[in-house]
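Sample 3 of the quickstart, ligand S-adenosylmethionine:
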Amino acid sequence: MSLLDTLTAYCANQFFTYGDCLQCPHPSGRCSGSCLKCSEEVNFHRIGGRTDYDCQKFMYYYVCRYSWKYCSEIMYALEQIDLSAYPVFNILSIGCGGVPDLMAFEETRPARDTTEIFYKGYDINPYWNPIHKAIKQYTLSTRDITAEFINRDIFDVLSDGKPAVRHYNVIVLEYLLSHFPPDNRMHLASVLFSELIEVVLSNRLSNSPFLFIINDIDHYGVRPLFDILLNKLNNEGYRFSYQKGHFKYRGSDYNDGSVQYFSDQNKFLIPDEIKDEFNCAINCTSAQLIVEVQ
Ligand SMILES: C[S@@+](CC[C@H](N)C(=O)[O-])C[C@H]1O[C@@H](n2cnc3c(N)ncnc32)[C@H](O)[C@@H]1O
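Result:
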């Protein structure tokens, strides 16, 4: 079984056996009994609603709701890249959550490909910890995937200014930028990109291209942030190629150079009972920036 199958089965099982949320951290002080409702409150910043992923049962729900879609979106991105140029995948994932990016790397490698994957996931939210434990458990059953998780604020980690100990060749930001508060998002994105270039890219794996993937909501509050990274790479003198992609039909051209994918289909057949229970997000809808630094 793949990581996607294993983790969604684990989270579905945890969800069903979790029981009622007796000490609900919902701002209203009580659990509505509907994780779908909380999910929508977080997504659409409903006033008086849940503002963050701060409920254990909700985390299990989130993994079952979004993993197939988010994994599919990264798979589309990886199909744009010549993965054979990468001797290993040393992946730094920021705001990694339930690791749909790691699932996509596992799914996209050609059959019998044993290119090793090292995955380091940072997430500030401790509610992911039991899920990270289950992911680590899964990787122990594989010969070529290793995963480590750190429950810390990435800005604290990077502001130490020390070069990354590990030589990475992939950075993924999946639905991280949209999670930053809108009024400070541009500043945080700018600081994050500068520090990633200074601390991680400058200490990259030799003999490999370096891949950045940003996958996030196709929204005016996020798309312009992609250019901040491109400008910084330019200013630092890096040679790179890039492409921007999106899935949804856009009524008007945002002049951002993004090309619509030929398909927005999910890469998987999700079992009907899971689809219904977790209101699974099916079609791909994100906007992406894919950068390869030479
Ligand atoms: C919308 S979730 C996305 C999770 C996962 N990448 C996915 O695609 O499903 C955003 C994640 O970013 C994490 N996050 C936000 N700010 C962070 C920070 N400063 N440092 C580390 N993680 C952060 C949150 O805790 C949350 O789990």
